[in-house]
Structures are given as C-alpha cells and as structure tokens.
Amino acid sequence: MLYPLFFDSVYKERVWGGNQLQNLYQRSVPYKHTGESWDIACHPNGVSKIVHGPLKGMTLQELFEKDPKALLGQELGHLKKFPLLIKLLDAQDKLSVQVHPQDEYAKMHEQGELGKCEMWYVLSAPQKATLVAGLKEGTTKEKFEKAIQQGKVESYLTRIPVQAGDIINIPAGLVHAIEENIVIAEIQQNSDTVYRVYDWNRVGLDGQPRELHVKKALDVIDFTPQSNPKIDGLMIEQSDATYTYYIANSYFAIEKIQLHGTIEENTKNLKFYLYTCVNGEGIIEHNEIQSKFKKGQSFMIPGDIGKYHITGKAVLLKSYVPDIPKDFIQPLLENGYTNEDIQKHVAIE
User: Fold this and answer.
1) Do 174 and 33 reside in the same domain of the chain?
2) Are 185 and 234 in contact (CB under 8 A)?
3) Could you say which of 27, 159, 196, 210 is catalytic?
4) Which domain-ending residue is among 197, 220, 243?
5) What span, in angstroms and rounded, lies between the C-alpha atoms of 7 and 34?
6) How many folded domains does the chain comprise?
7) pLDDT digits (tens, 9 = 90+) for 6-58
8) Residue 279: what pLDDT?
C-alpha cells in the first residue's frame, strides 16, 4: 500500500516570471525570472520526485509505470498517461495572449500530446488587478485574424477584475492571459501545449521575439459567446469544514475545503486525489503516520490508501478526475441545491 506523497518542485524560467514564490512561500527559487513551479508533474517536460518515506527519490513517472492501479485507483488505473498537472505561476509581467487546443486537435498536430483545459485559483493580486479571459462579444475569426495582422489584438480582449480567492475556468479554446503581479495556482490537464497569439511586442530571455502560433491558434479558438469564467461555486457545510464545489469536466473536478478541525476522507481504492494548500497549515494522517503541510504545498493521495484524515486550519484545493453525476452533482442535490442552482453557479462541462 502507498502513502500520502509529497514532491520536489520543478521550476521553469520565464520572461514574465519573478520572485514571489520565494517571498510568499519561503522557497529557494533558481532563477531571477522564475515563472512556474510544477508541483505535481508527470510530463516529459517536468517530472516530480518523491521527497520522503520508503519511495524517496523515485519519480512520479516511475511509480506510475510500476503500479498505475495502486497510484491512480481502480477506476483510473487503465490510463496510459498521468492525467493532471499542478502548478504555481508567478506573473511579474503579463503572460502572452494565448489559447490551448482541444484533445483531438492536439493529438493530430502535436505528436499525440493532450489538449489543455485548466483552472486558476488567484493566490495573490494587487488592487484593481485584471485577467484576460475571452474575447469581446461579436468577435469573429475573420475580425480577430485581421486584428492580429494589424497589431490591434488588445481591443478585442475581455478583461475581468480579480482578487485573491477567485476561481477562473479556462477551457480549451478560450483566449486568456495572466496579467502582471498576479500569482495563481493552476490545475490542468497533463499537457504543455500553448499557442501564443500576441506577446505584447517584447523579446524573450534570449533577446529575440518569442514564437507565435497564429494559424494553430485561429484553428482552435472558440469564437462562440462564452459564459462568465469566474465561478461562484456552491457550499456544503460540515462540522469541521466547508466544501465549495466549483468545476467539473471530463478531465478534472475542483473543490475548495475550508478546514477548521479534522475531516476523514476515503479513496475507496477507486481514485487518487491531489490537494493544494492555498492558506494555513495542517497534518495529513494515514495508518498512524503523520505528515505536515503548509501554505503553498501540494500533495497526492494515491488511489489505494483508503481512509485518511486531514487536521488543521487551512484552505485546500482538492482536485481529482470525477464521475460527474456521482462525485459532483449528487452531493449538491442531496444538500438541497436544484439543477438550476448548479447550472448557474458551477461550471460543469
């Protein structure tokens, strides 16, 4: 039987990165422009390594290959690729205006890579901060292509105000960009495919303009009217925690747990869970072995461990691959919400 897993972080240098991961979480970051921390990663471009216990030193990829059913759970052990990727992003400067493809397009054009749906949890943001999330109503492919050619992309972008604690849904096909001085937690499909549309006329770390991917971007952008990407969520109160349900799609589900005591959870040997602590601290206990966690850390609950307890005063993001009717909709209905409530306040795709 496995145990709760903690990992080292894989850092990525980016032209837009900064040093907030060091300032906020007392991390030792390797670059002046540290843009990304891949905290649970099993991808050719970054693989996490276990940092404690009997499996210390083993990579997540090695463990996945050795025993996928124990790691992922019986419902997911058939998967050929680890499904999720957890990151922290420090945007000292704006990210490029970009879009991610759907699975079908990525498999055809990116050597079998997955598409990329993702979500953002805003960890830190200045007053009056905004993010780019979508295009203005009435934007067509033809209009947007002309705007790219004429350098007028910014006039077509939809900006939304954000503050710490906001949750933003970024499905494949949605044009988006994180703007300056914002730090986010990103939970996403296990993919590193990005199509840049516009990069603010800057140069990269090598002094050269970064590559744009305009043709592919225009192929995959969803130009249909979009719902509000900022998700309200629906809360379920329990004695020692409040659970808020936000997003569920075929790739991942997101709940926020506001913990003020001890909760018991159970994988039932069916599936794994990933947790990201966005505030506070606590202890995860399994088989009478305790491990501490703190703000800015992520950890994995393998599918085969059964019951475990989490104690503390903390805010956690819980992510997993859902059975949407059973894991997401049913608990909300059982706690008095209507289908109309769910449609209005939760993103289900």
Assistant:
1) yes
2) no
3) 196
4) 220
5) 18
6) 2
7) 999 999 999 999 999 999 999 999 999 999 999 999 999 999 999 999 999 99
8) 98
Lookup: tokens for 35: 């843009």
Q: Residue with structure tokens 């058939």?
A: 78
203 and 257 both lie in a single domain: no
Residues 289/2, Cβ–Cβ less than 8 Å: no
- Give me the pLDDT at residue 227, please: 87
- pLDDT at residue 1 in the model: 82
Residue 84 lies in a domain: yes
Q: Is 202 labeled as catalytic in the residue annotation?
A: no
Residue 294, judged by CB atoms within 10 A of its CB (0-12, 13-18, 19+), counts as: middle
112, pLDDT greater than 90: no
Q: Which SS3 state, helix, strand or coil, does residue 143 take?
A: helix
Segment 196-209, tens digit of pLDDT? 999 999 999 999 99
Residue 274 belongs to domain with CATH number: 2.60.120.10
Q: Which of 178, 196, 220 is the last residue of a domain?
A: 220
The Cα 89–Cα 98 span in angstroms is 15
pTM score above 0.85 = yes
Distance, in Å, from the CA atom of 240 to the CA atom of 224, rounded to the nearest integer, reads: 42
263 in the same domain as 144: no
247 and 206 share one domain: no
Q: Tell me: do 72 and 46 sit in the same domain.
A: yes
